[in-house]
What does this fold into?
Amino acid sequence: MIAPKRKPRAHTAANEDASVMAKIAKGDLGALGILYDRYAAALLQFARRLVGVQDATDIVQSAFLRVVALAHAYDTSVPSARPWLYGIVARITREHRRSVRRWGAAMLRLASQPATAPTTIPESRRDLDSCLAKLSLAKRTVLLLSEVEGFTAEEIATMLSIPVGTVWTRLHHARRELRQLYVGEDS
Amino acid sequence: MSVRVCRRRWEAEAARDGRLTGAALASFLQHASQCKDCAREQRALEELGTALVRANAPTDELALRRVREQLLERVAVRSYGASATPRRWWVAAAAAVLGLVLVAIAGKLYLSRGHVAYAADITASPKALWSRQIAKGTEQVTLSDGVLTLAVHRSANAHRVSLRVPDGVIDDMGTVFRVTVRDGHTREIVVREGAVVFRRPGAQPLVLSSPSVWVPPGEVPHPQAESKDRANDDVTVTAPAPRSPSASHSASAQRRRASTTGNASPADEDFAYLRIVALRREGRSDEARLAAAEYLRSFPNGFRRTEVLALMREPH
It folds into this structure.
């Protein structure tokens, strides 16, 4: 029997995001706090697995600053801001990686310790995260958005501004590489 | 025993990603129920997905809280007159830091000559987001989030103190009061001594005299709710109805008559002065002059006499 893919995480107040975004566009600091409280935890986990613990908080803060700048352009007919927010985080991580200075620092960190491995993380999770960190950012992004966050390929394509076919291709290669690293399978 | 690789195994991933639908999906499901290789592939994909979900680390609440404070502070600074272009907040932040350093140096020099640099002593809750600078004779305090308790020195040479909150401005002179800002809104103003005027866009200015507590409509005063963030705060809560300065003449006269000694109290003098300030800011110059004349009659030796005289001499 086929195992159903994990569904997107339920969000109880997604239909209120449009009104919150409209308030943020008008400079409502309280509304920004509401949006932050609603999504920041999940976005931080997503960013952590993309760029590591040390840079994840910077990524999330940059994302919400960009939310403030782009709030006026948000399509209020879309009730949930979740895909939009994840798309912003994904774009910022791409920009983050292009910075030569941060790339150099990341190389140094890789040389000294695992990128996402504080000692308190259980062995199994550290192994998987270490293997995940070895994938390219592009593959890692689509894999996490699909398998962990539950977005469809069409949603991911829109978020990342890439064709749906590219999403499927990256997913396939990401799974194959991760299975080779983590499980030792050779497909 | 080796498992033969099924030529349809790729469909397991396609089905998981939603690429197989309708008849093609049904066909694969039928096939997978009898094919060990395809069934194994389905399990492997499911296990990998489950492992990825379970590998999410617990939420770092401390990091979330820190990022939230920094974010709101940066946005608040940008909202209060800093440049709209994203990169200039660095310039504004650097200028603010430099300004504070210069003020601190000037304050040290001032203190060494026995003068008080700041008019207000400020106690902040540990997580409060606030700043202070002196510009054009006004001590400008900005509170973005948290609790501040201010004790303003009653000195003729002291700066006028103005507290900017996300939803307005609180003007003060010679007053002890506490302000709570949370989620971008003023949640409570407690006036322990003197009086303040709370000005908000689109609303009548509110004059709050001691002892009084103001909260927005729909909220209940909680003067002790944040006791862990303040030290030794023993304010008592009574809440006379706030009133606007332009309609408060009879109220102020009643307060003076109610004084047990028959002499005007410092709070009365503060109120009279703040009324002048409020009228001027509303553009009601003639009424402000009348209020200034009344101040001078009522408080011939008032500590703001010099300033009020100057206001009266200003041209129309």
